Amino acid sequence: STYLLNDRFVKDDEISISIEDRGYYFGDGVYEVIRVYGGTLFTAEEHIARLYESAAKIRMQLPYGEEEMKHKIEQLVRDNGIDEGHVYVQATRGAAPRVHQFPGEDIVPVITGYTKAYPATASQHEPVTLKSVEDIRWMRCDIKSLNLLANVMAKQEAYEEGHYEALLHRSGTVTEGSSSNMFGVKDGVIHTHPVSNFILNGITRRVVMECCTELDQPVIEEPMALEDVYNMDEFFMTSTTNGIVPVSAIDGKQIGDGRPGPVTEALMAAFDRKLP
Ligand code: PDD
């Protein structure tokens, strides 16, 4: 395969990353995952804009702009012949001897990217189950940071017990998933955490919100209490990699009849209509 390394396209055996990269030492960097449907990037501008926003929030200036990044990512998809799959791109603060403070101006960020091919499930995902896990992350979850230790630990805890995703909550207030946003439906109204420093402002979440507007589907952007999610009529999660995923049970308690409900079904159909 071909990889992106800064402003170049390189083969596997040509990649060399410094042991002193701040990504290794500190997880000092940001990333994005962008879905490819039928050879076309989905919501690429939004993802690239968020990458540059995340970089700005950690006071990191990328060596080239959003337009050039888009062209590079498109070329990476073409070079690897990706029809269905995704692109991963990350930027670290660069390679420098390990001190916590930023390196000097002469040290430039290191950008890497790869593609991954997999079948298009779009939003046709089978229902999954969740396990609630305490959200022990920092207070800047709006930044798509490479620091994913708390996310990794939460996901593993859910996975080991046979669940697809962790439902994160801060002392009983639901925030999001380990790598997804969470939505409940009660009496025809969608509930989801508002955009804040406690969640990632998911691009799939934004597309779902657009679908809600188009469908005249009411949404309340207020945090859900964990104790209330068990009594929701429907529940679903969203992410770039999986689109909309219906949830059949949380902590072993079945949601609705365990099948995707009417609101989830309508959103999955509306979401599919937006795909390239
Ligand atoms: N994760 N919340 C978190 C913490 C995430 O890491 C992600 C995405 C989302 C969903 O955002 P989006 O719809 O923009 O993908 C929410 C990516 C897919 C990952 O880490 O693989």
UniProtKB/TrEMBL annotation:
Native organism: Edaphobacillus lindanitolerans
Cellular component per GO, a single term: cytosol
Keyword Lipid metabolism among record annotations: no
GO biological process, one term: carboxylic acid biosynthetic process
Protein name: D-alanine aminotransferase
Subunit structure: Homodimer.
Any one GO MF annotation of this record: D-alanine-2-oxoglutarate aminotransferase activity
Function recorded in the entry: Acts on the D-isomers of alanine, leucine, aspartate, glutamate, aminobutyrate, norvaline and asparagine. The enzyme transfers an amino group from a substrate D-amino acid to the pyridoxal phosphate cofactor to form pyridoxamine and an alpha-keto acid in the first half-reaction.
UniProt family annotation: Belongs to the class-IV pyridoxal-phosphate-dependent aminotransferase family.
Cofactors that this protein relies on: pyridoxal 5'-phosphate
Catalytic activity: D-alanine + 2-oxoglutarate = D-glutamate + pyruvate
Keywords (A to Z) from UniProt: Aminotransferase, Pyridoxal phosphate, Transferase
Listed EC numbers: 2.6.1.21
